[in-house]
Amino acid sequence: MTPERFQQIDRIFQQVLDQPPDERASFLQNACAGDLELQNEVQELLAHEAGRNGLSLSIRVSAVANDIVETQSPNLEGRRIGAYQVLRRIGRGGMGEVYLALRDDDFQQQVAIKVVRGGLDSDELLRRLRYERQLLAFLAHPIIARLLDGGATEAGDPYLVLEYVEGEPITEYCRKWNLSIDQRIDLFLAVCAGVQHAHTSLIVHRDLKPGNILVTADGIPKLLDFGIAKLVLPDTDDVALPATDGVRVFTPDYASPEQVRGQRITAATDIYSLGVILFEMLAGRNPYRIKGRSPNEIERAICETEVQKPSTVARAADAALPWRQLSGDLDNIVLKALRKEPERRYRSVEEFAEDLRRRKEGLPVRAHQGSVRYRMSKFIRRHGLAIAAATVVVLSLSIGTGIALQQARRAERRFQEVRKLANTFLFDIHDQIQSLPGSTAVREAVVETGLRYLDGLAAEAQGDPTLQVELAAAYQRIGDVQGDPLGPNLGQFRQALASYQRALNLLETPSNQRGDYDIFQRIVWLHLKSGELQARTQSVDAAMRSYLAGLEMAKAIATRDHRGKELLAQSYLRIALAEENLGDNKAALENARAAADAADRSVSTAPNHSATQLLALTRTRLGDILWIVGDLDGALTAYTNAMRWQEELLAQQPDLPERMEQLQIAYRKTADLFGNPSFFYIGDAQRAELYHRKALDLAERLAARDARNVRAKQLLYEELRRLAAVMRDTKPEKSASMYERSLNGLEVLWKDAPEDLGYRRDLANTRLGYAVALGKLQRYKPALAELDLALRYYREILKQDPNRQVIQQDLLDALLALGKIQMASTDLAAARQTLEESISIAQRLSRMSKAGLYEERCLALAEAAMGDLEGALRHRSEANAHYATALAIWSGWTSKNLARAYASLQEQNVLRAKALVSVR
User: Fold this and answer.
1) Exposure check for the chain: N or C terminus, fewer CB within 10 A?
2) b/e map 640-674, b = 16+ CB within 10 Å
């Protein structure tokens, strides 16, 4: 059966279900128009519909689909999908299968792989899979199962690789472990945090149910399956994957009235489903008793039947249940979440969760009508011992009412004065000293002081949206001082990430969802800065999720405000860098060009210093990617334009650290392009050293301005390493000395922030370069010690973030350097083991679907090095075979005019080595 035929059957099946029972037979006969085979297939589906009680319509149709296409769907158990060995099938549905698999290359990890099966890979299902992948890419929360990878099988079936969660449905977990009411609420609150995160990323799940919330053995809930989620943006129509022929995909037992009726889906839909889940967790069963499974019966039960109180249901189901604990506030909270009208439910998941927390603390909850008697009873329960004493002084207090009113007015004046003082610290004073030399530590004190003031005010004025925005700005400022990845900072990266997250939590509230440009642009920047820090301390995948969240918000802004184009450019810049780190150079180039285009449009709309700076930044990033794909002339043009704009900006603002830093980076990249031996380059060592000297001068000046500015120190140590690399062949002693200075400084930075992967990579790269310089000086023993440390650092990074392809390339370079030094010190057995590992890694990199020139370079260098080893052992034929592989790569480059000078030099080196082998 073809997918098209199945879709025809499914369409008529859904239409028949919508008919009254006594009219279905005649409707089916007319719809099939004499096609008896089609009529029989639909009747089979109807028979399944009548016999599968307890299952949703979508699940029942999927079950029939499984039966129909089973013969077309090979079981993938025991096979290999990409880097993953499939162990067993753990799930099956109309969209495909889910398998438990093991990544069994250098980085072992159990995963779940969702595969769209042959026979059902229609455009609709492919769109749904791509849509799910995009939604998961937005989300980064410990409660949400992570997206790890994706691709296509050898048969062309697309798949997603997801975090494997081994656990039990949340309701089963509660029953199995006999959790108390408070323990169940705590577990539910953790789920709310994950759903709220999805909502702040503008994603509605739409299929929340116990089966999609698994609790691990550690008691941690995990939210699964965003396959039918949808994206909603403020001030826009909902963006959702279109349903097929009117089919509504949901699970009736946990669906909201608006889902059943086919009405607009919002965050309130998830709140309703959460209410059903909480009801079941507390009362032991679902709030509905749906007798049949026809659409009419489902709609009648969910949309018309009033929900009983959880305490009433619990008492009737099992008198042993602690139903008395449910009566009152918990009854009211659950029933508020289950209102038929979306607008009468909680306004957000956070508000829902807050009511549960208030109930635990004995505070009044929003779900209650809020009578004076109710609030008084809550107060008495919390402060029973103090009530008697308070009663004694009530009369005397009434006499002082006039005095109290006067004091209240004074308190309000004091509140506003402190608020003004806090903002003076955070904005006026901070901004005035930000560019002063040596101001980093002072900025920290200024921002912390202002933050203390605002924190105190927040406790006095909960629910004040304006104050929340001010607090968010304060947390962003303190995060910038702690660890802004692009500005002067103290190197406290984890603390900075936490500060940024607090700012996001304050801003991403329902009251701010329709805020002005300033709020939205602050949210975008917080996502982008968080991504930078996640790349340093967690993984590139985590960073990508934050970048994509920022990009989606930037797109929404750009449709309404021209200033959104700058935010678009900044988002694309970071996504391009992440794609480069993951080895997807094609996607990186597309995003770099998108950034440049957005910057051009931003300048044409509002030309100013900021827009010009953005132009330069986008050209620097574009140059990076053009270089990697072999367009060295295009890269030089991009870098030259960036340098010109940065020089103009610095001339206009010569004391601004930001201008100095960006020009320093432009000089450094241009110098590397001319002659850094760690890359493929143009081949002009003189100009390379000239630009590195310019970059070093700016880096020294920046570091001297502020002893506490960790960012400036890192730039200085990186520049020392780059200049040392250019000087390795001509001035090895001077090169080694510069490497030592860089290493000493980086060791101090890393000691203060050991979790930072950026520092660890900088240290590894510096040790690698230092080892090569020591090898030039024939100091093999210390060179081997440096390489041992470098290799260890690279492997540690890959253990934490195995998808970071640039680190795999770094690891390969270190192995090649180690093999050469082992050969130079005549340890040929060790050299063989090292170089065989390097070739294995190089071959794996070159086989990747996203492999590019750098991967080809890695393979050519590894093959040439192995040829040298075989030549040293006088294995002429083996050596020539390795040399031939290397020469094929280099000649391919020269014929395509890719990094021609570098490729020609490498080709000549291999030919000379080959000639030496032939005369031995």
Assistant:
1) C
2) ebbbebbeebbeeeeeebbbbbbbbbbbbbbbbbb
Stated as kind and residue range, the H or E segment containing 371 is none
Residue 904 burial by Cβ neighbours in a 10 Å radius (0-12, 13-18, 19+): middle
What whole-number distance in Å separates Cα of residue 484 and Cα of residue 878? 52
- Per residue in 321-341, pLDDT tens? 677 788 788 999 999 999 999
- Whose tokens are 């500005």? That residue is 487
Residues 6+ apart with CB under 8 A from 42: 9, 12, 13, 16, 28, 32
Among 243, 205, 248, 259, CA closest to 227: 205
Q: Characterise 686 by phi-psi region: left (phi > 0), alpha (psi -120 to 50), beta (else).
A: alpha
- Cα–Cα distance between 566 and 571 in angstroms, integer? 9
Q: What is the pLDDT of residues 448-460, one digit of tens each?
A: 665 665 566 555 5
Q: How many residues does the chain have?
A: 920
Q: Indicate if the pLDDT at residue 233 is higher than 60.
A: no
Beta strands 147-152 and 203-204 are unpaired
Helix (H, G, I), strand (E, B) or coil at 99: strand
Query: How far apart (Å, rounded) are the C-alpha atoms in residues 355 and 375?
Result: 14
Structure tokens given for 602: 């931003």
Percent of the chain exceeding pLDDT 90 equals 33
- Helix, coil or strand: residue 727: coil
* DSSP SS3 for 239: strand
Which helix H or strand E contains 90, and what residues bound it? strand 84-93
The answer to whether residues 743 and 763 touch, using CB atoms and an 8 Å cutoff, is yes
What whole-number distance in Å separates Cα of residue 35 and Cα of residue 33?
6
Whether residue 332 contacts residue 365, with contact meaning beta carbons closer than 8 Å, is answered with: yes
Which residues, including other chains, have CB under 8 Å from residue 734's CB and lie 6 or more apart? Answer: 724, 727
User: pLDDT category, 54, cuts 50, 70, 90?
Assistant: very low
CB atoms within 10 A of CB 83: 20
Give Cα 436 distance to the centre of its chain: 35
* CA–CA gap between residue 224 and residue 266 (Å, rounded): 19
pTM of the model: 0.52
Closest CA to 96 of 121, 67, 124: 121
**What's the whole-number mean pLDDT along residues 382-404?**
42
Q: Is 56 in contact with 65 (CB distance < 8 Å)?
A: no
Q: Which of the listed ranges 8-22, 277-291, 867-881 does the model predict with the highest average pLDDT?
A: 867-881
- Distance (Å, rounded) from C-alpha 696 to C-alpha 691? 9
Confidence tier at 643 by pLDDT (50, 70, 90): very high
Query: What domains, with CATH codes, occur in the chain?
Result: 3-51 (no CATH), 80-306 (1.10.510.10), 782-919 (1.25.40.10)
Query: Strand (E) positions, 263-409?
Result: none
The CA distance from 839 to 855, in Å, is: 11
Q: Are 722 and 692 in contact (CB under 8 A)?
A: yes
Count the helices and strands in the chain (H runs, E runs): 37, 11
Give 248-299 pLDDT, tens digit per residue: 456 788 889 988 888 888 889 999 999 999 999 998 888 987 765 566 778 8
Distance CA 471, CA 506 (A): 8
Q: What is the 3-state secondary structure (H, E, C) of 838-892?
A: HHHHHHHHHHCCCCCHHHHHHHHHHHHHHHHHHHHCCCHHHHHHHHHHHHHHHHH
In eight-state DSSP terms, residue 144 is B
Looking at the predicted structure, is the pLDDT value of residue 370 above 60?
no
How far is Cα of residue 869 from the mean position of the Cα atoms in its chain? 43
